[in-house]
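Morning. Coffee machine broken again, so started the prediction first thing and wrote up yesterday's gels while waiting. Chain of 265 residues, entered below exactly as on the submission form.
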Amino acid sequence: MTKAVNEYARYFKAENQAKIGIKLADNKFLDVSGLIRSIEGDQLTIELVGTEPVEEMTAESGSDVFITFWTGWSLCRCNAVLMRKIYGRRVFLRLTGPVNEKQTREFFRLDVTIPLCYTIPEKQLLTAVHEEWAATVERLKDCAAPVLVAGAGGFKVVRWNGQGEIAPRPVNLSGGGLRFKTQEYVEPGTLEAINLFLPLVPPRVIHVVAETLRCNEIVLGREKGNNYIIATRFHLINDKDRETVIAFIFAEQRRILSSNAGKRG
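Came back before lunch.
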């Protein structure tokens, strides 16, 4: 037990973000995000973020829970038990079993449909791009959350930062980069400033700088004009933003699996 407690203290740090999945009585999962507030032995306290009315969910004391979080170097997962019914924004957990850490160069990838916009910085010098990225990340902290509306093709941005509508598009997303379709050719090695709009509660804007690895023309596409597939890797991304992207991907994967299971039933 002492070894496990020491392990918990090493991994779970106050103010770090974590994603928790709570198994409900109806065999569904409640996916929520929160900040670690304290760790004492095997007891973990997490404060939920967002505005979802969690207290109305049927998450009873003793429910099985799994926690995922990103350390900056690896993806970790640990099982837990809900110590009491959720009231307010605090979740009290008792950790069980070891922390499973997966260190990998390649992140799990998933096809999702999200709004996305990008620009190509005129100055491609890394120091200049880094300064602009850092300034943009800082500005976004004071910027109102985007307004997203669900439609047949996915969520679209209808209001954010004085811009017009931003339509959803298919994106192959991971914690290390993304692949998407565009109508312009982008030279490999080019740095792109990208805004990813994640349909969370509340919606999140993830600002990254990505390096173009490949840009291949779609030869047999049905759409008019030139179309390309751009593959990129994240060059500049905030650690907590990367955690948010990874948590979103896993939540989407669980949603898709749950939806497919329901269709088969």
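The chain has a mean pLDDT of 85. Going to sketch it on the whiteboard this afternoon.
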